[in-house]
Every structure is written in C-alpha cells, then in structure tokens.
Amino acid sequence: MKVKKIISELKNGKVLVSDGAWGTFLQQKGLKPGECPEEWNITRPVDVMAIALSYLEAGADMVETNSFGGSRFKLANYGFEDRVFEFNKAAAEISRKAAGTDRFVLGSVGPTGKLLIMEEVTEEELYEAFKEQAMALEAGGVNAIMVETMTDLDEARIAVRAAKENTACEVFCTMTFQKIIGGEYRTMMGISPSEMAQTLVEEGADLIGTNCGIGMEDMIGMVKEIRSVHATIPVLVHANAGMPRFQDGVTSFPESPYDMASRVAEVVAAGANIVGGCCGTTPDHIRKIREAIKTK
Q1: What torsion, rounded to 10 degrees, do the Cα atoms 78, 84, 87, 88 define?
Q2: Mind listing the pLDDT tens digit for each residue in 259-275?
Q3: CATH class of 5-294
Q4: Residue 238's closest CA among 267, 202, 200?
Q5: pTM
C-alpha cells in the first residue's frame, strides 16, 4: 500500500473511522497486571489479531498496533529492552494481516515515561528510542506512525521528528488534554491545543489531534481550538467513553455507544477528519460511530 494514502483520502473529503481501546481488551483476554502487552505479539498473536479484527468488522477504516509501550524505555521495565524491533515489527505485521490491503494501520507509539524536565533522559536518547520504534513499525507494514497520548510537547516534537526523518510513513501525533477551571484545555504539562497545533505542524506532523482524557462532547471544543489556529491540518480524535468512574476497585466508563455516536456530527462539523475511541470504547462504540458518519 502506498504511503500517504490516508491523507489523500482525507483531502478527497472523506471522514474516516478509527478503532477503539486496546488495553482493556487485552485485559479481557487475560493480560495480567505486570505483564508486558507487547510480548503478546510474540506469545499470543492470535489474541492480538482478534482485537484488530473486531474493530475492522465493526466498520473501522484503520486499526492501531499493539505497540503503545514498545519503546526501549518502557520495555526495559520487563527486561525486554533488547527486543524493541522484534516486538514492534510483529505488532505491525499482526494488524497489517488483519487490515489486508484495503484498510489502514497506525503504528502506536506512546510516551516513554521519562521526563526531560527532570533530566531523566536527554533529547538525543528520546530521539534514538523513537527512531528505533518507528523504523520497526514501518518494517512491519504500517501506513502511519501514530504518536499518541503525549502530555509533554517537547517529547511529542522529538517523536514526530524521529519518525519523519527515519521512515517514509505519514506521521500523526495526538496529545491528551483535560478541562481545567475556566473551561480551558491543558495537558498535564500545561500545554494548550493551540500550542500543540502550532508546534507539531511546524515539526512536520501530517495530522494532529487529541486522544484519551475526555469524552466525545469535550472533543468538540478541542477541535474548534485547533481549527482556530490551523484551518487545514487533518485532525483526529480518539475520545474516551466519558470520564472514568472508580467504584469498589473497578473502573467504568459512562458513555454508551449511542451516547458517543450522538456527538459525532458535531465533532465532524467542528473540523475532525478521523473519529475513533480510546479508553472504555468497544467494537460496539465504533460500530455506532461508523453508522453516524455514514448517515452524516
């Protein structure tokens, strides 16, 4: 499949549907606390494949890879820092096999867990880690590198640059925001959506957006703010199924598939080009989002 085809589809006016949550799905299939999710790409590929297929069967135009924690820094927590290429390439191959040639694969790249501001890591070390992961995902057949759930703009910027300079893939980047007092949106590091948009577009990101942290209703305001500073950059939203609730040691998410889908038209009208889900979303949520976009 040719690179940059996702952006070409968006430029043709299509609104695409992405997939939903992966972490909770892995847990449902037996992933235990303290177990490395990315190791499953080697030890339990059938279960990983089943997750990708479930979202594709629900109508998603694209699926991510089981590689969110696939950097050398994250894998070092399990003693797997020397298996970055193996785990990430396998993750991409599984999702590519599920997607076939007619749908897209986004290579998931999450935060490293290391803070530049605390001098836990250097920019050069971050760059090399993101380069290593992105190249492995490209080798496995992804269409785009999906840098996601970022809160530190410098880390996001470095990840985008590493992927742009070392792969032929499209490079997407989303950050995670929450609504603060006064109704504004900020990451944990104090970054606003407009700051994100300006910096990441300058860094060369092909698509930007937001994931996790908030539900579909708040995504409307988020997209509007991004559009206030950049009218043409493609925008992706991966919303939670509402804000998480904790009760009796169990986390739940309040928004039903219908609840999420009922806001899709407003999110698209605000300027979103790709709509999908994050924490708490299931194939049923994605199926309803697909129906909402078809009937828009």
Answers
A1: 130
A2: 999 999 999 999 999 99
A3: alpha beta
A4: 267
A5: 0.95
